[in-house]
Amino acid sequence: MSYQKNPSDPPENWLWHFANAHFAKAQPLYAQYPHICEDPMDASESSDLPTIAEALELFRDQTLAGRLASIEKNLAQLSDAVEHLSSITSGWVPIHTLADESLRLNSAILATVISIEGGFLCEFPECNLSASGETQFEAIENLKDMIESAYTVLSEVPEKELGLVPRRQLEILSQLISIRD
């Protein structure tokens, strides 16, 4: 329902009709002040009624309080989700760079990080490489060093001298790593 302003109506009637047109949104206000829904001419006779400006200000405050409560609820849910995620003791970590600037990763390496007693273990299962550290960051950095070392050492050995596992490691690492010009 919408109210079409009639120029012959006094401004206080415009406001009253506007408020009535938005009754569904103003339920808390009308529940507290049911006489606001009555005819505005009768409302002027009662001394305990708020003015229209006071009623609209109260409505605004109640609406803002509802929005604030909703935001606080969403923030609490996000906080719970962050706490849950930080308690996870294992997960996948993409590695995009290596410490050696002369080596470049052609694509990200997907490593797993697992919480172990006294620290973390970071694994690159496709290449059968792993490293540990006291923190997740340290374990990831140690795995990067392990990847660089494995690539460098295996690249220097003639292919026919490599066993089955080292040959497979070199094949995988050669696809992932290139030397910068």
Order of helices and strands: HHHHEEEEEHHE
**What amount of the residues lies in strands?**
15-25%
Spatial sequence of strands, sheet with the most strands: 1-3-4-5
Shape: elongated
Largest sheet, strands/sense/barrel: 4 strands, antiparallel
Question: Would you tell me the overall average pLDDT?
Answer: 78
Our measurement of the CA-to-CA distance between the termini, rounded to an integer number of angstroms, reads 72 Å
Q: Helicity range of the residues? A: 40-55%
Number of helices: 6
Q: Determine Rg (CA atoms, Å).
A: 34 Å
| Poorly predicted runs | none
Q: How many domains, as an integer? A: 2
The count of strands amounts to 6
* SS class: alpha+beta
Which features characterize this protein?
alpha+beta, 2 domains, two-stranded antiparallel ribbon, 50% helix
